[in-house]
Amino acid sequence: MRQSEYHWARPQSWPLTVRVPLIAALLLIFVAVIASERVLTRFSNIQDDNLRGVASVYLDSVSLALEPFILRQDIWGTFDTVDRARNAAGDLPVRALVATDNSDQIIAADDPMRFPTGTSAPSALIAAPSIDDLSLKYTETTVWTQKDVVYQGQLIGHVVTEIDVGNYLRQRREALWSLIIGNTLATILLAGAGYFLISRMMRQVQVLSQFMGSHEGDGLEEIPHSAFPAKRTEFASLFERYNKLVRAEAERRDIAQRLSDQAQLVSLGRLSSTLAHEINNPLGGLLNAVDTLRKFKDRPDVVEASTELLYRGLKNLRDVSKATLDFGRSNVQDHPLSKVDLDDLRLLIEPELARKNQTLDLTIGVDDDTLRVLPGAKVQQIILNLLLNGSAAAGEGGGIGLNVTTEEETLRIDVSDSGPGLSEAARHRLTVGSASKNGAGVGLRSVREITQGLGGGIEVADLPACGAKITITLPLQPKGGFVT
């Protein structure tokens, strides 16, 4: 693909050297997101377990120490125990410690101004989760948790504490940013490495693509050995196979051209004997006219009649010979198709028709402006081959037809005959293109080759009564056609 064909708004048009690393990078990002989510989830669970474990040990010891004081409603003993427990929290960042009775009335707190004794505990303390339900939230820097104080199976109060979890959240943020930065760097590094490796791998593909796409319409060109990989790799073998394909295609084109020339010579050969006969016949009459002129040169009426006869006869011979010469020279320099070319076909085929006492039904329903986009010599050769084939099939006293019309931006050529129908061998030559071993069927194969070269199609049908009809359709913007 050439650079001008890339369009950054259409990802499907991007080169593989961009698409493959980009897809790999997207896959890496997808995997990194999933892996990061699992790592952060696992890290959060570990932090929650750690916090619950530390808080459980701390509150177990505090509740055990407060049990006798809460049971006796000893405010000063409870306050003293709470104050000492608050200062002995160690690594657990306790922000507040409150002891309540079983009716959620505050008995004592480490901060009496914030939580006065004898008042109802705030809703945050009452709704505080137990240690087993404790978990961190990204939106809260502190969490509340509580422990029941039980004496002989009876609930006598609660120990509620507020813990500063800012350090835990900071660790989570650090882990998150570490994952983001690490994954980003890894993705960029791997995408860059992928781009470099894919570019090296695709370099040979680009060479192949360049040679395959840079000579459209002019034939393929072999890849020079200087462009081959230095080492014996799969691409070197691929280049060699491509060069073999190019040589085979060149040979095929050469054979097709020689086949076309051969078909033209075959057509001319079939016409030559008939044309010689048709040229020889008028010569007798022309010689008689000359003898008449010699004998009656003093009679103006005889001279005028004989001169007119000579003019018509010589003009007819000139037209027949000119059409034959033009057809023979058609491959030297082609020209736009016109109605004159189609009229010349009548002159070329008439001697053959006269020899076999056949009729030609000719209908031309197009104008020169429509025909001029097609190459005249090639279309002439297609029609003449089909007319000669139809004449051979129609037999003595038969008839052939030629109808040329347009249909949906295509030229339609219908050639029919009154013969027994097209044989399977002839159908095969028209559709597959192979001639017989003795050279028969070259004309029909040439019809197929030229039609395909112009981007056209071929249809074969049997007529209801007898005979066959061959339909050639040629696009009016033909592939490899004639453009003026």
From TrEMBL:
GO CC terms in record: membrane
A Pfam family annotated for this UniProt entry: HisKA
Record field: catalytic activity: ATP + protein L-histidine = ADP + protein N-phospho-L-histidine
Sequence ranges assigned to domain Histidine kinase in this UniProt record: 274-478
Keywords from the UniProt entry: Kinase, Membrane, Phosphoprotein, Transferase, Transmembrane, Transmembrane helix
InterPro entries associated with the record: HATPase_C_sf, HATPase_dom, His_kinase_dom, HisK_dim/P_dom, HisK_dim/P_sf, Sig_transdc_His_kin-like_C, TCS_sensor_his_kinase
Domain of life: Bacteria
Keyword Transmembrane helix part of the UniProt annotation: yes
One of the record's GO molecular function terms: phosphorelay sensor kinase activity
Enzyme Commission (EC) number: 2.7.13.3
Protein name: histidine kinase
Transmembrane intervals: 20-40, 176-198
Location of the protein in the cell: Membrane
Organism: Pseudosulfitobacter pseudonitzschiae
Keyword Ribonucleoprotein: no
Enzyme class name: transferase
